[in-house]
């Protein structure tokens, strides 16, 4: 009786192969097909089960994620940075409170400072290490740029700057712009309101005075 036990144990051992630590190019033999081995689809894999042949299922048409119900008629400036006529809005369509300013500073430092640096001079770590040509925010063109256009740049990206549509929610994008304006205002103030350093780009027609949000630097 005992001998059969030993024999059985040996057979089991040889079937189960090497224990942990041994590498093998062959898949392990699973005597007990437990939850390690489950039928599943890889991302982007095909499937013969669904009519469209894709395993990944899109949300049901008309699905709206929480907080993402967009009123593009009455709240177009907030969601798109443009008014209903398609023109960039001049200022942040949001009540600017201390909480918004603080949120903007924090988000700016996280998302923008890597390239634009904390002061907005475009000398962030990616400029230092990779010489990514990043503009300074302290040039006339960007001082006069409507807030809606900056929102659009952050949302869609521009040239080497990636889009931040997905990592930064809409409200945070606006808060970041509030901080960006505060950086500009503070720099102007420190320069005694002197004529700002010009970018090496020819100015088009004199840009209209752009009202900036009511922020105290
Ligand atoms: C990976 C580096 C990088 C990050 C991060 C980054 N930017 Fe930029 N940004 C750039 C570069 C490069 C340009 C110049 C793009 C061009 O003109 O081709 C630019 C341009 C801009 C401009 C000027 C657009 C124009 O019309 O000239 C604004 C405004 C701007 N960035 C705002 C932001 C804000 C706000 C954030 C944070 C949410 C941010 N950027 C994050 C690299 C970056």
Describe this structure in words.
- The chain has 217 residues and is mainly α.
- The protein has a domain at 95-190: Cytochrome c-like domain (Cytochrome Bc1 Complex, Chain D, domain 2), CATH 1.10.760.
- It is 37% helix and 0% strand.
- It contains eight helices and no strands.
- The chain has helices at residues 2-16, 76-80, 98-111, 113-116, 125-130, 140-144, 147-156, 170-190.
- Helix 3 (98-111) packs across helix 8 (170-190) and helix 7 crosses helix 8 (170-190).
- The N and C termini lie far apart (88 Å).
- Mean pLDDT is 84; it is low at 198-217.
- Bound molecules: heme C (HEC).
- The site of heme C (HEC) has 23 residues, from helix 4, helix 7 and helix 8.
Topology:
Layout: H1 2-16, H2 76-80, H3 98-111, H4 113-116, H5 125-130, H6 140-144, H7 147-156, H8 170-190
The protein binds heme C (HEC).
- The helix fraction, in percent, is 25-40%
Largest sheet: none
Query: Radius of gyration from the CA trace?
Result: 29 Å
Q: Whole-number average pLDDT?
A: 84
Count the DSSP helices.
Answer: 8
**Estimated structural class:** mainly alpha
Give the termini separation: 88 Å
List the helices and strands in order.
Answer: HHHHHHHH
CATH domain fold name of the domain at 95-190: Cytochrome Bc1 Complex, Chain D, domain 2
- Specify the CATH class of the domain at 95-190: Mainly Alpha
* Overall CATH architecture of the domain at 95-190: Orthogonal Bundle
Overall body shape: elongated
Low-confidence stretches: 198-217
Strand content: under 5%
Number of strands: 0
CATH H-level name of the domain at 95-190... which superfamily? Cytochrome c-like domain
Question: What small ligands are held by the chains?
Answer: heme C
């Amino acid at each position: 009786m005992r001998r059969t036990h030993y024999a059985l144990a040996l057979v089991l051992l040889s079937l189960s192969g090497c224990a942990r630590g041994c590498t093998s190019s062959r898949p392990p033999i699973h005597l007990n097909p437990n939850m390690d081995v489950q039928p599943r689809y890889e991302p982007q894999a095909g499937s013969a089960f669904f009519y469209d042949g894709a395993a990944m299922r899109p949300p049901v048409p008309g699905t709206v994620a929480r907080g993402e119900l967009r009123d593009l008629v009455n709240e177009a400036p907030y969601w798109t940075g443009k008014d209903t006529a398609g023109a960039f809005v001049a200022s942040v369509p949001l009540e600017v409170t201390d909480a918004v300013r603080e949120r903007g500073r924090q988000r700016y430092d996280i998302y923008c400072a890597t390239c634009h640096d904390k002061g907005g001079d475009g000398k962030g770590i990616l400029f230092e290490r990779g010489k990514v040509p990043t503009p300074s925010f302290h040039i006339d063109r960007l001082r006069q740029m409507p807030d809606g256009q900056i929102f659009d740049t952050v949302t869609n990206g521009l040239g080497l700057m990636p889009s931040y549509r997905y990592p930064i929610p809409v409200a945070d994008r606006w808060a970041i712009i509030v901080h960006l304006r505060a950086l500009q205002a503070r720099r102007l103030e420190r320069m005694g309101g002197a004529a700002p350093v010009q970018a090496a780009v020819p100015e088009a027609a004199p840009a209209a005075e752009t009202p900036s949000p009511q922020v105290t630097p």
